[in-house]
Amino acid sequence: MKRRRFLTAALALALAPAGSRAAGRFEHGLLWRVRAKNAAPSHIYGTIHVSDPRLAQLPAPVQKAFDGARTLMLEFVPDGYAKQRFLEAALFLDGQTLEQKIGAEDFERAYRHLAPFGLAREFVNKMKPWGVLLNLHNPKGGEGSPIDTQLLELARSRRMPLSQIEGVEEQVFTFDEFPMESQVALLKHSLAHAPELIVLGERTLEAYLARDLARIWRLREEFATRYPQIAPHQAVMNKRVVHDRNVVMAFRMQRELRHGNAFIAVGALHLYGADGVLARLEADGYRAARVF
């Protein structure tokens, strides 16, 4: 079970976007009321995919919007098959090894980071670099459940209709088709700068609690600009994980928005700026207003 949980928990990490011009209206705020013609208003809520005691309770405006919703839409709703499929996709099945890709020294670093999961050395050595990268940040996790998990449990307890934006094959494609050269470069860089990433994670959470989307974006940009040697690899990651998915998310949200009274939760950075889902929805004729 540990092997299945550790990759599933990292599926939807909002990884570091490092470019794109901001749209001023979408720089601050986590909860937005979105209106479509001839439909009741819905809400879109930006989450952060970490566990922390400061996230243990939904803010009052968010709870109120959720309580009044007809249905819940998440980025991804994992089931047993999806967890197993994602885990298998993150492993080399052709005899290649992680140590071959990143070298003995960095392999030892990676193994130490993943040791809290109780994984055997042989298992870690079968992992693809992207599988390690997704789980590198605070692998033990914090106290409590991520916001998406809380929402999912609440919806299930109420027998609330559920839907997801992406399927497991799309989640797999996002990472598994990521160029190996960039996987290796980003993993080696993250292993070498692990203490800085811990600090970045804490500052990012603080910005999230302040509902400051622009600050989250800026923190990531500032970190990336300090290390220009990984900029081309980071740009590839940004495109695959953030920008390309924004297009799909904005399109698929509309099937719930047209019915109205939906509660949609996605990673907060998907809301940000001129390329975010809110700006894309407005370009399609919807109207978004900040609630919280």
Please tell me about this protein's structure.
The chain is α/β, with parallel strands linked by helices. It contains 14 helices and six strands. The chain has one domain (2-284). It has helices at residues 2-8, 60-67, 80-89, 98-102, 104-114, 121-125, 129-134, 147-157, 168-176, 180-192, 194-209, 213-225, 231-257, 277-283, and strands at residues 31-35, 42-47, 71-74, 162-164, 262-267, 287-290. A six-stranded mixed β-sheet has the order 4-3-5-2-1-6, sandwiched between helices. Helix 1 (2-8) packs across helix 3 (80-89) and helix 3 (80-89) packs parallel to helix 9 (168-176). It is globular, with a radius of gyration of 19 Å.
Short account of what is shown:
The chain is an alpha/beta fold and 292 residues long. It has helices at residues 2-8, 60-67, 80-89, 98-102, 104-114, 121-125, 129-134, 147-157, 168-176, 180-192, 194-209, 213-225, 231-257, 277-283; strands at 31-35, 42-47, 71-74, 162-164, 262-267, 287-290. It has one domain.
Q: What letter string, H or E per element, gives the SSE order?
A: HEEHEHHHHHHEHHHHHEHE
Q: Order of strands across the widest beta sheet?
A: 4-3-5-2-1-6
Determine Rg (CA atoms, Å). Answer: 19 Å
Query: Helix segment count?
Result: 14
Query: Beta fraction of the residues?
Result: 5-15%
Domain unit count: 1
The overall strand count is: 6
What integer is the average pLDDT? 89
| Shape type | globular
Given as residue ranges, the uncertain stretches (5+ residues, pLDDT < 50) are 4-22
The first-to-last residue Cα distance is 37 Å
Q: Tell me roughly what share of residues is in helical segments.
A: 40-55%
Give a short account of the largest sheet. Answer: 6 strands, mixed
Q: Structural class of the helix and strand makeup?
A: alpha/beta
